[in-house]
Amino acid sequence: MNIVVCVKYVPDAQSDRTFSDDHTTDRTNVDGLLSELDEYAVEEALKLVEAGEGEVTVLTVGPEVAVEAVKKALKMGAHKGVHVCDDAIHGSDAGATSLVLAKAVEKIGKPDLVLTGLASTDGTMSVVPAMLAERLGLPQVTQVSELSVADGSVKGRRDTDIASETVEASLPALVGVTDQINEPRYPSLKGIMAAKKKPVETWSLSDLGLDAAQVGFEGSWTKVVDVTQRPAREKGEVQPDEGDGGTKLVEFLNKSKLV
Amino acid sequence: MTAHPALDKLTAIDSLLSEEERDLATTVRSFADDKLRPYLADWFEAGEIPAREIAQQLGALGVLGMHLDGYECAGASATMYGLACQELEAADSGLRSLMSVQGSLAMTAIHHFGSEEQKQEWLPRMAAGEALGCFGLTEPDFGSDPAGMRTRAKRDGDDWVINGSKMWITNGTVADVAVVWAQTDDKIRGFVVPTDTKGFTATEVKHKLSLRASKTAGLSFEDMRLPGSAVLPEVSGLRGPLTCLSEARFGIIFGAMGAARDCLETALEYAGSRIIYDKPLAGFQLTQAKLADMTLELMKGQLLALHIGRQKDAGTLQPAQVSVGKLNNCREAIKIARECRTILAANGITLDYPVLRHANNLESVMTYEGTSEVHQLIVGQALTGEAAFR
How much is the ipTM here? Predict the structure, then answer.
């Protein structure tokens, strides 16, 4: 079974995340990494291929530095990588990004399965998997916490607040996984040493038959018109407990509309 | 790479590493932070560790016997092995000991001196962490002078029969296989001993104040009968065990700096957040003098480790240089750990912080694989040509 895993290079949530002047997330001047939520998709792909046969191709769209996300997945054990990198892609919204991903998946070949994570840890929109499935004309099963593949179909469990659904789809399909599905492996020494020799292709828009006008700010349906950084957290109020601590606490919670 | 960006920026050790080396350090560090560090205080307090489970996890990471070639071993560089030791020992010296004894002592002995059958039987399983090994050289009365060992192996037809005892054997009670060194009628020979062999007994050493997150044992052999194929065929004399010890010493040069770095990172963070007389402890001159002096020694020790690693990879390393590294880095690491304890004051004596745990562990690290005194004598001999051991 051949699997394409879509991954994103995101700013490290532990570092200071900022926006550029054009209101896009600054992905170049901060420490970045493979979005943690995508590690679950990589792990699931590796498990499926290890249990049978086939190859895992990791796909990302992003600036030059985004190749680091692909490399991390290769160190975990993926077989090859594709990095779509073109200045014109800068500013693409979810819709435009899904177009680039769809063209890249088509160029990679006809995978049996396209895997994604739950959402990126920077944008957190969680819409690209659905858009991508639509563009590829694939059945989509998103937000699954358990996955199995047998007899040309895929079966996943979706946990909601009130019930757990088991959803089945015929292959080829797109599946999005949650962070409950597995425990991503650490890159092993052998994985790190082997990754150096694994192929990573870099594709531009023209390699995908796309025009600059179809992507970036111009090709996007949505636009971030303003960004306000969340105000710094204010210092808390210390209330000494003089026997009435409980009352004061309830008063505070009540005032804050928390009870 | 470190938890303290300012320290990282000042030492800039990362800039001397290849991408592959940095990746390995990162992966071992992440593993240790997620899977080991949260449990260390409890393991240390209880004197218990899930050795088998940890060995399997280390096997999955590929770090057991990682510097050996073939037999499912990764064939990584010596420097990479050192970096793995550094990151594991930043968590706890006892866990690095588990890896050292498995990879540098037991596996190296079998890899360098074993028969093809011995290698095939043990090395792949040991690399995967499915089989654990220990290394029996030291005896109750013979540590720095192993040539005096009393353990005897006698021929009986094709078999060997071994009597004697070993002491301070890391992994002894959890091992599946022991590499045991014994005096024969001719020279000292090594034996590959499955620990379920009749006559083999391992007894845990209790009441330790150091390396409590590590299993230490005494071994005893009573008319322990082994087939002729159990002997390590490719070596006789002390060269065998001393070759293995030199490998383990090498890892300690890096490892000790891992423990020291963890202490310094802890002290830096503590001093920055502990308010005393209305300002952070870090803002006091005496504290800064301590922090600055410790950083100098950490950086010098890390550079020394890397220098020795590069020489080992180039094939130019002399044994006396390993002694320089082990002597310096153990000595400075324990000084740093103790000094950090003074910055943490009373909090420093608890297991809520790693500093006294590291300091206590480093007492053992200074002693095993060649005491500081022995290393002074090795360096002294290299300088003067005079042997002053006895």
Answer: 0.87
Q: Are B62 and A190 in contact (CB < 8 Å)?
A: yes
Distance of residue A101 Cα from the nearest chain B Cα, in angstroms: 28
Please say whether the beta carbons of A128 and A101 come within 8 A: yes
User: Locate tokens 């890096």: which residue?
Assistant: B254
Count of CB pairs separated by less than 8 Å, A with B: 35
| Three-state SS at B296 | helix
Which of A75, A188, A193 comes nearest B60 by C-beta? A188
Q: How far is B306 from chain A (nearest CA, A)?
A: 19
Tell me the sheet residues that pair with A33. Answer: A10
Residues with Cβ within 8 Å of residue B70, at least 6 apart in sequence? B123
- The Cα–Cα gap between B371 and A251 comes to 64
Per the CB < 8 Å rule, is A189 touching B31? no
Residues of A with CB under 8 A from a CB of B: 75, 185-193, 196
Alpha helices of B128-273 — where are they, by DSSP H? 239-273
Residue from the list A75, A185, A189 with its beta carbon closest to the beta carbon of B66: A189
- Compute the 3-state secondary structure of chain A and give helix, strand, coil in percent, each to the nearest 5: 30, 25, 45
pLDDT in tens, chain B (390 residues): 457 889 999 999 999 999 999 999 999 999 999 999 999 999 999 999 999 999 999 999 999 999 999 999 999 999 999 999 999 999 999 999 999 999 999 999 999 999 999 999 999 999 999 999 999 999 999 998 899 999 999 999 999 999 999 999 999 999 999 999 999 999 999 999 999 999 999 999 999 999 999 999 999 999 999 999 999 999 999 999 999 998 889 999 999 999 999 999 999 999 999 999 999 999 999 999 999 999 999 999 999 999 999 999 999 999 999 999 999 999 999 999 999 999 999 999 999 999 999 999 999 999 998 999 999 999 999 999 999 998
Q: Are A179 and A37 in contact (CB under 8 A)?
A: yes
What residues of B are in contact with residue A192 (Cβ under 8 Å)? 20, 23-24, 27
Q: How far is CA A185 from CA A21, A60, A189, B125, B295, in A?
A: 37, 20, 12, 20, 34
Whether the link from the prior residue into A172 is cis, omega within 30° of 0, is: yes
CA angle B132, B138, B143 (to 5 degrees): 145
- CA of B106 to nearest chain A CA: how many angstroms apart? 20
What is the enclosing helix (H) or strand (E) of A49?
helix A36-51
pTM, to two decimals: 0.90
* Count of residues in chain A: 259
Question: Distance (Å, rounded) from C-alpha A150 to C-alpha B247?
Answer: 49
